[in-house]
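pls design
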């Protein structure tokens, strides 16, 4: 495929980089404390929260992967995108007020207050490892691979270092506020470029949905897959996808950190719901273009080349640069978010408890040093991912080992008031060992169940372990139960009932209806 990029497009990309760096360093001027660095001074409003949630989640693997999957195997993998609204609704109803009432800086801190320090440390270590070795390194590697398709002379390890340095430097100096402001710009560029691309492709098929469906293989637009399907079997659709989504959107530090930085519960909730609505968009501007490409550019053997082919062949000069800027936006927004969240965990969960009398300036210093160290580790590790059988396999292997018991501690631990520190820590140990065991059995072809179903199995088993072992020890104190478990007042806390459209629950219901409608339509296709 010819991937020659015009000088105009290159200048657009260079200009974009300049704007991002300028915005990051402009914010850095007002970053003077650890709270500024990690939580943006707890001043974030709902618009930047929602756009940042969207941008930090959309990576280069999402854009290229979803487009390629829609071309080669159908739209079933888009489920992970639009079903995200369900855990975000749960977060808005319950976890947003719980987190903000707790005045925490990190999500593992919540486990420390709900249970004990052991669970906090365990979760924090797992989060740091997965954030740097999976999310950050994976985003850098995938981004370098994608950019190499447009710029064949790029060298992978050098590209990962450059991407890490650019994202790391404005993150280290500007902190979370720099991350969310650059994410806001990146989200706008990404949505604009992808929308233009989708429109041009629709124009090529005369805006005919019938033509698009007729050109695709049977079942290509259905999310129903048989139980032996390697992509997403139907039990995994109901078991694994929602549970993995809950972990990602409600307990993952690099996602939830911008919620913790909200100026109040109201802004946090509206930001979360905006993120939920924005997550419906990839189905239409990333997945559908891949499906349309079957009838326009047939014969593409490598799914990862679908997106580059569409960009180069469908777009005129200038728009190629805009879409590539959107692609680079996806890379940068994922990397800056994981670096900022991981440095937060290192400082708040490990350095601060072990070094007494730290001043806000000291915390800022350690936060910046941590960001740079983690940036270097991720950049050096990123090229190694090529030996793990592909980025998607790499991500799935890591998540199915660690995620299920963590989901139980939050989703069950918040509602089961007898859950205690002993039950929580043992659930983390036993659940993780079970996930690791299933992974090892799969490597020897002794266990062939899909990873999304495995996630459901381990969550169910971990729930039983948590409840059983918690009952062997005394329940937590009344103070812990009242502050860190569910009560009905949380749902209505700080809600605005002055007009119907100011009630966040109305929009949560609208979002749920949108998700259910998409589910019903795509399940029947």
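designed seq:
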């Amino acid at each position: 495929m010819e991937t020659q990029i015009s000088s105009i497009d290159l200048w657009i990309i260079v200009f974009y980089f300049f704007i991002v760096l300028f915005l990051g360093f402009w914010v850095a001027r007002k970053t003077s404390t650890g709270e500024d660095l990690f939580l943006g001074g707890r001043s974030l409003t709902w618009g930047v929260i929602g756009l940042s949630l969207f941008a930090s989640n959309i990576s280069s693997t999402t854009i290229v992967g979803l487009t390629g999957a829609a071309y080669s195997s159908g739209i079933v993998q888009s489920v992970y995108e639009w079903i995200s609204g369900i855990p975000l609704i749960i977060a808005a109803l319950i976890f947003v007020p719980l987190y903000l009432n707790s005045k925490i800086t990190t999500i593992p801190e919540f486990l420390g207050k709900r249970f004990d320090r052991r669970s906090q440390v365990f979760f924090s270590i797992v989060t740091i490892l997965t954030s740097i070795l999976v999310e950050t390194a994976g985003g850098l590697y995938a981004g370098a691979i994608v950019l190499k398709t447009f710029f064949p002379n790029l060298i992978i390890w050098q590209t990962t270092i450059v991407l890490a340095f650019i994202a790391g430097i404005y993150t280290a100096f500007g902190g979370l506020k720099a991350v969310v402001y650059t994410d806001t710009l990146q989200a706008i560029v990404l949505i604009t470029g992808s929308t233009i691309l989708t429109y041009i492709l629709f124009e090529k098929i005369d805006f005919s949905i019938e033509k698009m469906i007729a050109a695709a293989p049977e079942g290509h637009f259905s999310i129903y897959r048989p139980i032996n399907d390697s992509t997403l079997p139907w039990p995994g659709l109901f078991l694994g996808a929602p549970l993995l989504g809950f972990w990602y959107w409600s307990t993952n530090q690099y996602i939830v950190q911008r919620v913790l930085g909200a100026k109040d519960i109201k802004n946090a909730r509206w930001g979360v719901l905006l993120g939920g609505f924005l997550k419906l968009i990839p189905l239409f501007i990333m997945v559908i273009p891949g499906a349309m490409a079957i009838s326009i550019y047939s014969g593409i053997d490598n799914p990862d080349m679908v997106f580059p082919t569409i960009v180069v062949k469908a777009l005129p000069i200038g728009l190629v640069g805009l879409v590539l800027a959107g692609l680079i936006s996806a890379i940068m927004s994922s990397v800056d978010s994981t670096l900022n969240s991981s440095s937060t965990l290192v400082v708040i969960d490990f350095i601060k408890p072990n070094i007494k009398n730290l001043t806000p300036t000291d915390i800022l210093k350690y936060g910046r040093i941590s960001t740079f160290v983690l940036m270097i580790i991720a950049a050096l590790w990123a090229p190694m991912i090529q030996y793990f059988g592909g980025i998607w396999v790499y991500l799935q292997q890591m998540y199915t080992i660690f995620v299920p018991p963590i989901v139980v501690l939050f989703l069950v631990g918040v509602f089961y008031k007898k859950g205690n520190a002993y039950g929580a820590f043992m659930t983390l140990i036993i659940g993780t060992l079970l996930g690791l065991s299933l992974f090892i059995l799969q490597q020897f072809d002794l266990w062939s169940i899909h990873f999304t179903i495995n996630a459901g199995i381990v969550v169910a088993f971990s729930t039983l372990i948590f409840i059983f072992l918690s009952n062997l020890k005394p329940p937590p104190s009344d103070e812990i139960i009242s502050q860190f478990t569910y009560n009905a007042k949380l749902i209505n806390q700080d809600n605005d009932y002055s007009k119907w459209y100011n009630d966040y629950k109305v929009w949560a219901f609208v979002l749920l209806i949108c998700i259910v409608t998409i589910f019903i339509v795509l399940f029947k296709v």
